[in-house]
Every structure is written in structure tokens, then in C-alpha cells.
Specification:
Blueprint: H1 17-31, H2 37-43, H3 55-63, H4 70-84, H5 109-122
Helix pairs in contact: 1-4, 1-5, 2-3, 4-5
């Protein structure tokens, strides 16, 4: 009979983002009654869970020896939730009589696990994690200097990649343009 997996001790998996991620996976593993790894692996790759995960990868995720892609972690969550007859997109603690119930926390199992997974990838402690991603700055169009076009003035446009700052050479061509490349 295979050994049941146990949550790694603090000497093996010290406190931090990885331990928090593994602890959350263990919450679902325990609620699913610690199913054998082949049974969990069989539930991945099914119609409701299209990402196939090997039992070795599941073991490594539950022991904290690897951090995998989100699709793999999510597939493990879906399989464990199927064994619990639970929706991974339902509230994390759905029962008001649960001691962990927080009326103001509508976080789903999947959202919470994804946040922990991101913290593990980034190496952030929970209190260091940004609450929301910062907004990207609005693009600012470059300021253009008044010029007579390409090579028509000693002052080059600010966005001219060929600008050298040197005065334009007089042209032998009619119209004031030179056949010489700017380099």
C-alpha cells in the first residue's frame, strides 16, 4: 500500500510563499480525504479538466519540491475539488459556521490559490504582495521640433533616429535633398 502524503515539516519546507502555496493545496487534499495520487492523476485530463498531470508532478507539488505552470496547479485544484464535489470557483469558505468564514471575503478557491502561486513565483511574502497591479503609464507622444522635414533644418526632430546633431550638408541635388545616407 502506498504511503499517504503528509504536509512537509517546517524543517523541510520553511515558512514563506512556497509553504503557503503547499498548505493551501493540502487544505484541498485533506478535504478530498487524501486520495491516492493515481486517482487524482486520472481525474486530470478528463473532459471537465483537460490538462493531464502525472502523479509524480502531483507528488512534487504537494511536497513543495516544484512550482509548476499555472495550468498544472489549476488542474490539480480542479481534480481535488471534483473529489470534494466542490466548485473551484465557489467561495473559499462557503459555510457561515466554518471558523474561517469571513463575510467580507468573497475570494474563490481558484483566486486564492492563484494569488499564492504568483507570490511563490515572485518570492513575495503575503504582506509584500501588491494588492492590485499598477496601471501602465499612458504613452506620451514625443515632442517634435519645428523643422523643414528630413534634413531641411539644422535642428533635427526629437524622434529622428538618424539625427547626429551636425548641420545638414548642402545638397547638389535640386530640391535640397542629398542621395547620401545619413550615416
Amino acid at each position: 500500500m502506498p504511503r499517504m502524503l503528509r504536509m512537509p515539516g517546517k524543517d523541510v519546507l520553511p515558512p514563506g510563499p512556497k509553504r503557503d502555496l503547499v498548505a493551501e493545496l493540502y487544505v484541498h487534499y485533506r478535504l478530498a480525504a487524501r486520495p491516492p495520487l493515481p486517482k487524482i492523476a486520472a481525474l486530470t485530463g478528463t473532459e471537465s479538466n483537460p490538462h493531464k498531470v502525472s502523479r509524480e508532478t502531483i507528488r512534487r507539488l504537494l511536497t513543495g519540491t516544484t512550482t509548476s505552470q499555472w495550468a498544472v496547479v489549476d488542474a490539480l485544484l480542479i481534480a481535488l475539488c471534483q473529489l470534494q464535489d466542490r466548485d473551484p470557483d465557489g467561495r473559499r469558505w462557503p459555510e457561515p459556521d466554518d471558523s474561517r468564514w469571513d463575510e467580507n471575503d468573497p475570494t474563490t478557491c481558484r483566486e486564492h490559490l492563484r494569488r499564492l502561486w504568483n507570490d511563490d513565483i515572485d518570492g513575495l511574502e503575503p504582506d509584500e504582495a501588491p494588492a492590485t497591479p499598477p496601471a501602465a503609464p499612458a504613452p506620451v507622444p514625443p515632442a517634435r521640433q519645428a523643422s523643414g522635414g528630413w534634413g531641411g533644418s539644422a535642428a533635427s526632430p526629437a524622434d529622428d533616429p538618424w539625427a547626429t546633431g551636425a548641420p545638414a550638408k548642402p545638397s547638389a541635388q535640386p530640391g535640397g535633398y542629398s542621395d547620401e545616407p545619413p550615416f
